[in-house]
Amino acid sequence: MSIRNLDDLLAEGVSGRRVLVRADLNVPLDKQTGAITDDGRIRAVLPTLGALTEAGAKVVVCSHLGRPKGAPDPQFSLAPVAGRLGELLGTAVHFATDTVGESAQATVAALADGEVALLENLRFNKGETSKDDAERGAFADQLAALGDSYVDDAFGAVHRKHASVHDVPARLPHYAGRLVLREVEVLSQLTGDPERPYVVVLGGSKVSDKLAVIEALLPTVDRLLIGGGMCFTFLKAQGHEVGSSLLEAEMVETCRNLLERSGGKIMLPVDVVAADAFAPDAAHDTVPADGIPSKRVGLDVGPKTVAGFAAALKGARTIFWNGPMGVFEMPAFAHGTRGVAEAIAGADAFSVVGGGDSAAAVRALGLDEKSFGHISTGGGASLEYLEGKTLPGIAALEN
Known about the structure:
Elements: H1 6-12, E1 18-23, H2 40-44, H3 46-54, E2 58-62, H4 79-89, E3 93-95, H5 102-109, E4 116-118, H6 126-129, H7 133-144, E5 149-153, H8 163-167, E6 174-176, H9 178-191, E7 198-202, H10 207-217, E8 223-226, H11 231-237, H12 252-261, E9 266-267, E10 271-275, E11 284-288, E12 297-301, H13 303-314, E13 318-322, H14 335-346, E14 350-353, H15 356-364, E15 374-375, H16 379-387, H17 392-398
Parallel strand pairs: 1-2, 1-5, 2-4, 3-4, 5-6, 7-8, 7-13, 8-9, 13-14, 14-15
Antiparallel strand pairs: 10-11, 10-12
């Protein structure tokens, strides 16, 4: 991969120059209070921002948050993020109340060397996500005018053909930030020649979301452990009753075909925690995976499954994990995710947590992040990289 990186930019000198940094500050917010509930993505960009401020750059940070409809929406404002970013950097972060308008232009113009500004949510502008090249390009022109150089440190967005990711790099000297560089290096290890045994753990709700990565990984992995809501479609493919558990009926035949072609590589739950309802206080117990009562819903993998998965992980030398094993947000149904995560952390292996809900689970369950080899910031981007897809943001940096 031939991409200029942050060290190349620093060697060229950035003192007094405006550096536009695309970060992924799409953090979860509490719906009632608006408070940030997980600042992991903010922390992930600190090494890049810190290096730039120390070198005297005028740092202009841009990001999206949530899915606003191309117009300002207070519930998706980055204002709370500006406050938290300032706390973590140990310096005030100047906040622009728009993205490329009068506030952004004035805020950037007033920056002193070594100071940081954060622009308002990129997705408050239709041009950011537009599928029309001209509309997207026009917004990219306005955004690029706020910087002299561009750094992409938003790995969680590199699979999107958006203006700030795909079009701005064509308009400015462009570089990969510390985070993007690390993510690509790590994922390259998984797609290259990983140390074996290579075990992949997939969870989450839908088989359809993970089908492409299953197809891509099946020939290369030694074991593929499947939990979460997606396991019930596989169990149905084996002819088992799954009650009112999550089921993609249209994917049953696909799962049956995958099981037949896997050569025994795919390992499914042998027991599940079945509840009377999808609720944190619902009555529940552990039942065999081939004996889920017809009116009950599976919300977690059971202890025998955790023990079996842990045994499969114990001898692994490379592990990739994407997707929780159950509804970990409800304490009664978090034991499977915790048990499997602890097994991954305890294995003598290079372990990669594939972003999204898996990374959130590590933090929500209070697990030591340092016990994993790498925690990705990009769930969708990680999966698409492993599928072998061209990621627009990476391609733009290579050009």
